[in-house]
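Exercise 7. Predict the joint structure of the components listed below.
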Amino acid sequence: MRMNIICNGKEMAVVEGTTLEELILELQLNPATVVAECDGRIVLRDEYSQVTLSQGAVLELIRFVGGG
Amino acid sequence: MTVYSLVRELKPDADVFIVNGFPVSGETELAEEDSCWLIRRGEMPAAEEMERLLYARHTPGVHDRIKKSSVGIMGLGGLGSMVAFALARIGVGHLLLVDFDVVDPSNLNRQNYFVDQVGMRKTAALRANLNRVNPYLQIETIDTVLTEQSISTIFAKVDVLAECFDSAEMKAAALRCALTVLKGKPFVGASGVAGFGDNNLILTSKIRTGVYLVGDRETAARPGEGLMAPRVGIAAHHQANQILRLLLNVA
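Solution:
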């Protein structure tokens, strides 16, 4: 079963039960370089694999690249 | 009364004249309430003199705020060393500089260090360099590897946080920290500063109240697309100006 979430303002279909960590990997990003806000709450890094996305979840992912 | 007549009276060997913050010629007529500074080229300014010059340049209201401000800089590489220079030049009163690394020859293509500082701790080298810009600032340095946990304690008291890390992981960690434990503290980070892409793709974006990210957000440092002084410098100065705007409450 698939469900819809909103990621960075865009609607997206994901498999039910997908965790935040899995979604970030599916987007081909490295979870360690992403700051995630789920339904208005900043998710701590060690919670990424525990947060299961629910239908209609509103996600904001801020990705970082190296160099400075 | 002209500037020259004042010079003859007060400081005959002066050869640079600053009136109301701007250099002027000796023929300039002075008006009531003008603020005038007479300088002898090559003469080392005393603390008070340096201070007054900054006051005159920045206008007193602005300089008072800058002088009382404190900024914490995480990472003293291409971004951090340049942000620190810009803030020291305008006289930001307190700087907290944190890095674990030593100056490496490969840093010199963009970082504000010198070849005779190779092997020195970046904290010590940057402190020495900033002291040559303005010896009257309060500079605190900590030589440590920052972590997501230690950022929140080490930088708890600064007015504004500058995230100048090289590593993408630490950039994310710093922002997460600013949005959780240090929530409410103004933050200016950077991401996407490598290579020699278009100047104008470097943007300052407000992502939350008081939280800004600078850069093109895409160009990672990688083989074939290294970090170079011009573009890293553009981003660093975006950061420094955004920090100044936050300190002056105009952001």
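Discussion. The first strand of chain A starts at residue 2 and ends at 7.
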